[in-house]
Specification:
11 helices; 328 residues; globular; 2 domains; 13 strands; 6-stranded mixed beta sheet; single chain; Rossmann fold; 29% strand; alpha/beta
C-alpha cells in the first residue's frame, strides 16, 4: 500500500503548508480565472527558481478579445521569465519530450509545484509519469482550484466536449496483460455522458464499476453526473456496482480503486480505468496507476474541447502526492 500524504484547502491567509521555495513550477495557460488563481495566491510569498507554462494551441487560437488575451498572458506577470511550451489538447505526446528535458535537471532534493487547474487529463498522467522517472524525487506538491460552477453548452447540456471520440490508451499506462479474459472497467464519472458511453462501447467490459464523485465540491454536481450517465444504470449489474469517492480528495479515489482491485484481483480480471471525472479524482487514478503497473488507463479524446468552462473560482486545494514507484 502506498503511503498517502496530506491535502488541505489554502487561501491567501493560510499558506503555511505551501513550501517557501520551489525549484520548478509547472502550469497550463488559460483564460479561465482559475487558471492562475493559485499562482496569484502565492505570488510574492514563495521563491521560484524556474517555471514552465504549457500553452495549448487550441486555447491560444480561441483568444479573441483584449480582455481574454490579458487573462491568458497573466502568467508573464506572475511567473516572469517562464518558459512557454506550445502543445496541443488533441496530441497527448506533444511537448512532453521537452518537458522531460526540463525535468532532467531536477535532483532528489528539489521541490516541484504543479497547478493542474486547467491541465487536460492525458497531460496530467504524462507529466506524473515523467516526474516519477526523476531519480530520487519522492513527492510533488499539486495545487488545484475548483470552478465555482460549470457552464452548459448551447443545448443546455453539461457536455464540455464534442463527439466523435477517439478512445486512446494513455502512453505509459498500458498495464499488463492478464491470463484471464475478464475485463474490469472502472469509470470515474464526469458530467459528459457522451464520454462514458463512447468508452463503455469501445471497451466492451465483462464487469463495469461506475464511481461517482461524492461528496462533490459543487453541491448539485453529484446528481448531474448521475443523470448524464444514466444509460449505465439501465443494466442492473452495473447499477449494483455503483461506488463513490470524494470528488476533491485524490487519496479517497486511490483508496476506492484499491478496494475495487481487492474485490476483482488481477489474476482474475484485467483492470482498466477511465478517468472522466473531476481532476482530483483523475489525480487519484494516476497515483494508483503509477503504483500498480498492471493497471491500464484509457481516455476519450473528443473532436473538440470547450475552451472555457466557467469564469469564477471555488476553493484551492494543496495535495502533497507520493510518486515513487510501487511494486512491479
Amino acid at each position: 500500500m502506498v503511503r498517502l500524504a496530506l491535502y488541505n484547502t489554502i487561501s491567501r491567509r493560510n499558506l503555511r503548508r505551501v513550501r517557501d521555495s520551489y525549484k520548478l513550477v509547472i502550469c497550463a495557460a488559460g483564460t479561465d480565472r482559475r487558471a492562475y488563481e493559485s499562482i496569484r495566491m502565492t505570488f510574492g510569498q514563495i521563491a521560484i527558481d524556474s517555471s514552465l507554462i504549457l500553452e495549448f494551441s487550441e486555447r491560444t487560437k480561441s483568444v479573441k478579445t483584449a480582455q481574454d488575451l490579458t487573462r491568458y498572458r497573466e502568467y508573464e506577470h506572475l511567473l516572469p521569465g517562464a518558459t512557454a511550451l506550445e502543445c496541443s489538447l488533441m496530441d497527448r505526446n506533444c511537448a512532453m519530450r521537452r518537458v522531460s528535458q526540463v525535468l532532467e535537471h531536477l535532483g532528489p532534493d528539489d521541490s516541484v509545484l504543479v497547478d493542474l487547474s486547467v491541465f487536460t487529463k492525458p497531460y496530467l498522467f504524462a507529466l506524473l509519469r515523467a516526474l516519477q522517472k526523476v531519480p530520487g524525487l519522492h513527492s510533488v506538491d499539486i495545487l488545484y482550484t475548483e470552478p465555482s460552477y460549470y457552464k452548459k453548452n448551447r443545448t443546455s447540456r453539461w457536455s464540455t466536449t464534442k463527439q466523435p471520440y477517439d478512445v486512446i490508451e494513455i502512453p505509459g499506462f498500458a498495464g499488463r496483460s492478464s491470463e484471464s479474459n475478464k475485463r474490469l472497467l472502472v469509470m470515474l464519472l464526469g458530467s459528459d455522458g457522451g464520454e462514458s458511453r463512447w468508452v463503455y462501447e469501445d471497451q466492451a467490459p465483462t464487469v463495469t464499476i461506475p464511481v461517482n464523485g461524492f461528496p462533490s465540491y459543487l453541491l448539485y454536481y453529484k446528481d448531474v453526473s448521475m443523470l448524464s450517465n444514466s444509460f449505465l444504470f439501465d443494466e442492473q449489474t452495473v447499477r449494483a456496482n455503483l461506488d463513490f469517492a470524494p470528488a476533491y480528495n485524490p487519496f479517497g479515489t486511490y483508496n476506492a480503486l484499491d478496494a475495487i482491485r481487492k474485490r476483482f484481483p488481477f489474476d482474475q480480471f484485467a483492470m482498466t480505468i477511465a478517468a472522466l471525472g473531476p481532476k482530483p479524482m483523475a489525480l487519484g487514478a494516476a497515483l494508483f496507476a503509477l503504483h500498480y503497473a498492471d493497471v491500464r488507463v484509457v481516455y476519450p479524446l473528443p473532436s473538440r474541447y470547450a475552451m472555457k468552462i466557467g469564469d469564477d473560482v471555488g476553493r484551492t486545494w494543496l495535495y502533497r502526492v507520493p510518486i515513487a514507484p510501487g511494486p512491479r
